[in-house]
User: Fold this.
Amino acid sequence: MKLLLVFLASIFVATSAIESVASGTTLDSTITDSNWIERGLEQISAERMVADIAELSSSRFGGRQTGTDQDRESAAFVADRFSALRLHRSTVSTPENRTNPLPQREWKQTMPVTAATIQDEPFLQIASANNQSTLRVGPEFLPILDSPSADIHSSIVFVGYGLSDPAQGIDDYAGLDIRNKIVLFLRGKPEPYKGAFTHADKVRIAKEKGAAAYLTATGPVLSPYEVRRGTTGTPTALYAGTDPSQQLPGAWISTDIAEAIVQNGTPDNKPLRDLQEAITRTGSSRSFVTSATARLVWTTLSSPGTLYNVASLIRGYSPRSDETIIIGAHRDHFGKQAGRLFAGADDNASGTAVMLEVARVLASAPAAPKRSILFLSFSGEEQGLLGSRLYVSQPIAPLAKTVGMINIDHAGVGNGRLTVGVTGLEKSVAAEAGQASGLSDKLDLYGFFPGGDHVPFKEAGVPTITVVSGGVHPHFHQPTDTADTIDPEIVKSVARYVLALAWQLANAP
Ligand SMILES: [Zn+2]
Assistant:
């Protein structure tokens, strides 16, 4: 009886397996091999991932800024890799998965975007009564990347955190005339303030109040979260994320420069630290007109371009093959800005390399998993999760049947531990994959992380698991995030964990 069934099944596969003929592979998708994952984990190659990170961070891909030719090239790199892996060879039609509508090849999703680039040699000079200094690009200032061109000279007004929410009893602009002035506000928000207030909100308010431009800086007093992340006072690459009608020229300046502006600009030489502490303690404003002026000059070139998401699929074999696990990583970074290449090795060539390596190993499995596994390479993450939002608005696999989205971001440097954020699933699921991959003692499990391509999925009700290498990422959004800083052991751990997790989710009963 058993023999007859095998015989009948093989006839069925032979007559209906159109894709397997195309790829020249005969895959017996009816065989499960529960021990394969142990062998799969051994196949993960740190060298391969380090080589991919070096390639993706090289000048060939120019920092992979969304909407540029270089990012299109990097999309082609990922698509070529997917097609070389022939992931779709696993898409043998079986009686169980024949009705699965998921696509069978690598696939692209696009949308029009604008690529803004700050041209070389932006200029920012700060002057006070007895001092004038031209700031150094990088350590002392960096224009906000989607800032319009600037040619502005005006006095600087300190406006605390730049909040205006009278209903909550805080208005950093109360009683001030900031028309045609340059406002200086701190990053983040004071501890007592409970409302949501983004950088884009602060820019919008400054514009509404008539400011000509803005400067922003990290305050000298760090929150526990900032300390844990290793936040420094150095400016980093940032998109304001405002819509075009709300844009205002702006720059991130170092904490040291902000301290000098504030301290020299107050009659009683009050340090910025004292003002920041007073705002946090009392929840009330400490805004004032400083005696310093700033001159901002730079050119921004904006050109139309295209955002590319790239995807490929291993089709599951069981009646659950219409359920999908997503393994996603953003590919984009900041490109070349203000004359500096932002190579984005840790952010997120590392996650892209991990995704490709996990795909390579899964493609070598002797049997397809029960559920389908969709690999997604997003662009536009740095500009406000554009690619993942695009995917969620036009999902290739129904979101209601997407049983988990694994997001890999910043997988290349740190302290050797894995930080895992889980939503919509029991944390024990994430812990089990730690056991399977031999990493139990290196996992730090949390709930939701704000920021990242998992967020649109979480908002759409899809369970998410975000994997980030633990500890400080000292080159975060800096031109120093280069391939030579990557730790092979760390990317290897992340890949082992993601492989075990994906296999577990895809084969769970
Ligand atoms: Zn980033």
